[in-house]
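Lab notebook, design round three. We kept the backbone fixed and only want residue identities now. Task for the bench partner: fill in a sequence for the structure below.
Input structure tokens:
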């Protein structure tokens, strides 16, 4: 009986050793694991490129739509006419302010009128000593003198500005042409930017298409 147990134990140990050896042989080594991972690297790289292009495609589509909308807006006659009307309105408003009978033309005269009235009243004032009144009168006279010079300078500047505004009114056709050139230049900038965006997308797409084949083919 004892001998039979010994023989059974020896057979069991042998079987366990055999199973262990088979397990060791069937388990990938540490050196083999990276090689297995590298086998799928081309597929993962291609999938990554597909994902990148899918994410960038909507952004490119948005830029194209916005570019087309911008160029269409620049070509709208009504929009160009509105810009010219806004300029015409601004010039007319300014002319109303700076013309001979406008608010600006009366500013200097109003300031001088007030200063001269104050000087006349002060010359008849008895609340101050002669020295005090003399000092105040001299200050107001100097102020009036400088106000007269400043008012004359303002009027010269006003007249020159009026002439320029009226010249601007007579050159509306030429101004309209200049504004059209500006809009066309803006459209050119949009076109160039879209061209750059498309070429960037093309390079990504070329790389993506180049990956649609087995490695080494």
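Proposed sequence:
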């Amino acid at each position: 009986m004892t001998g039979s147990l010994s023989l059974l134990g020896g057979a069991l140990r042998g079987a366990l050793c055999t199973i262990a050896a088979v397990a060791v042989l069937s388990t990938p080594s540490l050196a083999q694991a990276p090689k297995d991972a590298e086998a799928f690297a081309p597929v993962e790289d291609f999938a990554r490129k597909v994902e990148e292009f899918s994410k960038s495609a909507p952004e490119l589509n948005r830029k194209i739509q916005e570019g087309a909308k911008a160029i269409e807006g620049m070509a709208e006659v009504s929009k160009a006419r509105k810009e010219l009307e806004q300029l015409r309105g601004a010039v007319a408003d300014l002319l109303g302010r700076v013309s001979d009978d406008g608010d600006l033309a009366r500013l200097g005269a109003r300031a001088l009128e007030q200063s001269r009235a104050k000087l006349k009243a002060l010359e008849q004032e008895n609340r101050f000593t002669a020295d005090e009144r003399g000092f105040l009168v001299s200050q107001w006279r100097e102020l009036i003198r400088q106000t007269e010079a400043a008012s004359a300078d303002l009027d010269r500047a006003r007249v020159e500005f009026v002439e320029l505004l009226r010249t601007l009114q007579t050159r509306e056709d030429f101004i309209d042409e200049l504004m059209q050139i500006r809009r066309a230049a803006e459209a050119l900038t949009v076109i160039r930017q879209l061209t750059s965006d498309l070429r960037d997308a093309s390079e990504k797409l070329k790389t993506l298409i180049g990956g649609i084949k087995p490695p080494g083919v």
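Keep this in mind before ordering anything: Residues 53 and 165 are 55 Å apart (CA to CA).
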